[in-house]
Design brief:
Length: 210
């Protein structure tokens, strides 16, 4: 089980915003390096590179740049790649983030791929949306779970995503048992504390840390 360095009793996961264009350029790499530098300096423990529209080569460029920044800073922050174990291993990232789809690789399969690549044991996280998802993630020995959306999301006043609420988060944490749960979706500095009170080990977000 992954044992992170905690800051203020709350585990934090910063997620990139998925806006990198297909052809990664120096400007995008510079922007990512700046974000990683700021997040690491702020003591954020986990950084998820979530650029789902990029091909492997472009994603690798960003992953490599992020890892280089963490090494330069000698930061304990961990970088994991959304959905691409091959890119994570090539960039020597610390782990992989998975969905809860039935056809997804399991955490054990990710760990075996890392082992065959001569890499240290990776961090493996899973996005979950239902108690069944969480039970499966726990059974498959995920290192931690991102659960949400906890709160509603609005853009320019328009409702984009309904939140499941704190009661659902509390149930998720109970089902997860020993696996840490990070609250995701509509997280702010103001509502982070109530997520912890509901049982979450920490919070995750895209706009939260931007």
């Amino acid at each position: 089980m992954y044992s992170p360095r905690y800051t203020g009793g709350m585990l934090r996961c910063a997620i990139t915003d998925g806006t990198a264009s297909r052809f990664v350029n120096a400007v995008q790499i510079h922007r990512l390096r700046n974000r990683v530098q700021r997040w690491a300096a702020d003591g954020i423990e986990l950084i998820q590179l979530r650029e789902k529209d990029l091909e492997a080569g472009a994603l690798f460029q960003l992953a490599e740049a992020a890892m280089q920044m963490l090494r330069e800073m000698q930061s304990p922050a961990k970088l994991f790649i959304n959905g691409r174990a091959d890119v994570a291993i090539a960039a020597r990232a610390h782990g992989v983030h998975l969905t809860s789809r039935a056809d997804e690789l399991t955490p054990q399969q990710i760990r075996e791929l890392y082992m065959h690549g001569g890499m240290p044991t990776p961090i493996v996280s899973i996005s979950c949306h239902t108690p069944a998802d969480i039970a499966r993630a726990r059974h498959n020995a995920a290192d931690f779970i991102l659960f949400g959306p906890v709160f509603e999301k609005r853009v320019d006043g328009e409702l984009v995503t309904e939140g499941v609420g704190l009661e659902a988060l509390s149930l998720a944490c109970a089902v997860a048992q020993q696996v840490p749960v990070l609250a995701l979706g509509g997280i702010t500095a103001q509502n982070s504390a109530v997520c912890l009170a509901a049982g979450a080990m920490g919070v995750a977000g895209i706009r939260t840390f931007l």
